[in-house]
Amino acid sequence: MFDDAQKSLYKVYGIKNCDTIKKARRWLEEQGIPYQFHDYRADGLSDEQLQGFIDKLGWEPLLNTRGTTWRKLPQAQRDAITDAQSAKLLMLEQPAIIKRPLLEAANGEMLLGFKIESYQRFTQQHRGQQNMTHNQNDIKVQ
Q1: Contact predicate 126/31, CB 8 Å
Q2: Helix or strand run (H / E) with residue 112
Q3: For the residues of 39-50, what is the DSSP string, one character each?
Q4: In 11-130, where does DSSP find H-type helix?
Q5: How many CA atoms are closer than 13 Å to the CA of 85, on its beta-carbon side?
Q6: pLDDT at 127
């Protein structure tokens, strides 16, 4: 059984019908790792939230240029994405264009995308540390 503090240790951001989101959520559940799920479509995405993601990860990694949402954009619209501000406006307008999943630990560290090995390292690093002070030797996974 997990207490309330453990339940909020991780937050997964994405879109519920995304296959990669489904894989990430299934892996977390199989490992018995509690998390909250934030669906961009159902729960929305504020300017402040997205700016926080951009500040930590950069706009280029967040912008999924390999997905169908990007490929369906007119070339002129794709060409207009040249900086954080233009990318942010597009991501707010079309959150399906944000690379997913985005896994956020309670301390604010983030992991973008899903690979089992990365999730193992990230979750092992953060389990039980939500109440501990992080020192300069901690590994930051971004």
Answers
A1: no
A2: strand 110-112
A3: EHHHH---HHHH
A4: 19-30, 40-43, 47-57, 59-62, 68-71, 75-79, 84-93, 116-126
A5: 0
A6: 74
- For the stretch 22-67, pLDDT in tens is 999 999 999 999 999 999 999 999 999 999 999 999 999 999 999 9
54 occurs within a structural domain: yes
Handedness of CA 86, 87, 90, 91 (dihedral sign): negative
H/E segment holding residue 108: none
Question: Could you give the 3-state DSSP secondary structure of residue 131?
Answer: coil
Helix (H, G, I), strand (E, B) or coil at 79: helix
What values do phi and psi take at 137, rounded to 5? -90, -5
| Contacts within 8 Å (CB) and 24+ apart, 27-31 | 27/114, 27/116, 27/119, 28/119, 28/123, 31/123
Q: Is residue 136 situated within a structural domain? A: no
The count of domains in the chain is 1
Domain that holds residue 29: 4-126
The encoded tokens of residue 58 equal 């950069």
Q: Which residues are catalytic?
A: 18
* Predicted model pTM: 0.83
Distance CA 82, CA 4 (A): 42
